[in-house]
């Protein structure tokens, strides 16, 4: 009997102990410890969405200078890198043949003028003979046949005079042509538009060479301004417009930005790449930028003046919903706020939603739910 009482006493004590432990354990589950988090302020300000395109610089104008006549090159006055003025003589051809052609044309002109004077004199004589024949016919001394002969001679003299006048005009034209041909032996740099100096990009011939007419001698480029060219896909095409500002970067000048503007947008996409050509105008007054340089063109495609901005690391996806956790005003709990994403700039992103103010949790979000207790902590950075 005493033994039975002892066993019952042990069972009761065990049940009480288990019940106390269970109750204590249940209490621990209900009280969740504060999760350590790190926060950042929700910004309100301007944010821009950028697109970066790779491209290259081209000369805004590029054309060859060629002689208009054939000849031996006697002298070339410019070389690669030199500046050339509008109308400047850049080369001289051997002009002996063209000088001789001019002298021959001038001599032919003198002969034509002499023949003209002779024809004028012959016409004067014919006119006098015509007057005498008319008087004699009226007196009955000369016959009609004699009068007709004199009249035909006058008409022939008039025709001959017209021929000689035409010969003089042709000889004068030949002289002018020979003079122009002679002038072409001095090769000039001529172009339309802006008369400001341009640069020699290439030289194709040397002194002593014989050059055919219209064969390129040098190539001239205009590098102020330059033209930048890049290509965009269908996705980015609607976001670009003529006049948009473009920031240019190149490896030749790291950490330096050059300003440009969109000048032309191709109305068609290339069939091979499904991309459209974009041309920008790049001022280059100091001529530091050169055609052929590769560049990165940054274009602001969208800008919001007053946006709510958070670090992109604050974004959380829960149950297919994107949102953020805000720190409560007392700094004790986390508050879930679903958001829509807007403009993104680097590691900053615009969020659109209601009651987004204060501080946002950027580290430790995986430990919390809506209403979870939190404590501010500093996380080590790698």
Automatic annotation (TrEMBL):
Residues 109-185 form the Multidrug resistance protein MdtA-like alpha-helical hairpin domain. Residues 232-299 form the CusB-like beta-barrel domain. The keyword Iron-sulfur does not apply. Keywords: Coiled coil. Signal peptide: none annotated. The keyword Coiled coil applies. It comes from the Bacteria. Residues 149-181 form a coiled coil. Pfam families: Beta-barrel_RND_2 (PF25954), HH_MFP_RND (PF25876). Belongs to the membrane fusion protein (MFP) (TC 8.A.1) family. PANTHER family: MULTIDRUG RESISTANCE PROTEIN MDTA. NCBIfam families: RND_mfp (TIGR01730). This is Efflux RND transporter periplasmic adaptor subunit. The lineage of its organism: Bacteria, Pseudomonadati, Verrucomicrobiota, Opitutia, Puniceicoccales.
